[in-house]
DNA sequence: GACAAAAGTTAGACATGGCTAACTTATCTA
DNA sequence: TAGATAAGTTAGCCATGTCTAACTTTTGTC
């Protein structure tokens, strides 16, 4: 029976983890940030193609809130990564790999947003927070969100 | 009565937002990433001081999974930002501002972890995902998490 | 079809946050 | 207390993702 000195009802307890486990956690976050640019771009490109017929750098820049040269540079990185196909001065297309990644990202994005909405959060906040959160949600957590969402839909 | 062609039970609908709103969302994510290093460091420093008596670069490096020179560089940034006080080759202390930030971050971190745990997620996954998610949780969402947690604790 | 406007690219700069190699300082131990 | 070991720093490199300024290409209009 360790943990004797009980101190008046502390609702949370800081779990202390092994240093390596903690380090791995931070490494996971850094990795997530490395994939983030690609994920947001292909997701957006897929949506632009669907809703506007094509994906143009100007529009990508406008939606992401960055300047056109940033888009040019990043698109060429995506091309090098085999996610998009494109010739200079023309619209941007997704490769099969790009389309696959985009679909996975869109699905994940929607689940995160819907989950936040189910908590009573307003649409604007849900979208904003989801835009960052989505990249840090593991498969396990995504499934938990889906599960909670299902419960919510049955219940209310 | 718009939206005529109903297609077999689509559980999610992609909300299309104004370009500026979307851009603001991405800008928010970028800002969150700018504060992330400082937040993770002060949080960890506070915990090391509490549990080990002092915060040493080696230990910070080990826990973050980075090399010592990275810590040196980042600590000097934190010092420039007024979050940390320290002399070369000595342990690291938090300023009042640093302590305040650390407390807010620790609280937020705990809430996110507890919330994920309440969804049935295992501890290791909860901690890992929370490490990234915490930086993208607005006040609104944090409150919603707390609320859900309260419900959960009452219920089960 | 010429030319103006819009879209896109290139070049070059900058901040951030990682790294290694080599050096300095502090701590431990025989 | 000397010498070895551990801890910490410095210098310099790199990738990422942002920007501005200037140039090129495409598009739209008269
Ligand atoms: Mn995103
Ligand atoms: Mn997204
Ligand atoms: Mn974190
Ligand atoms: Mn993030």
TrEMBL record, chains A, B:
Biased composition (Basic and acidic residues): 7-19
Pfam families in the cross-refs: Fe_dep_repr_C (PF02742), Fe_dep_repress (PF01325)
GO cellular component, one term: cytoplasm
CDD domains according to UniProt: HTH_ARSR (cd00090)
Keyword Transmembrane helix (UniProt): no
Residues of the HTH dtxR-type domain: 35-95
MF (Gene Ontology): DNA binding; DNA-binding transcription factor activity; protein dimerization activity; transition metal ion binding
Subunit structure: Homodimer.
Similarity comment: Belongs to the DtxR/MntR family.
Protein name (database record): Transcriptional regulator MntR
Organism: Pontivivens nitratireducens
Gene for this chain: mntR
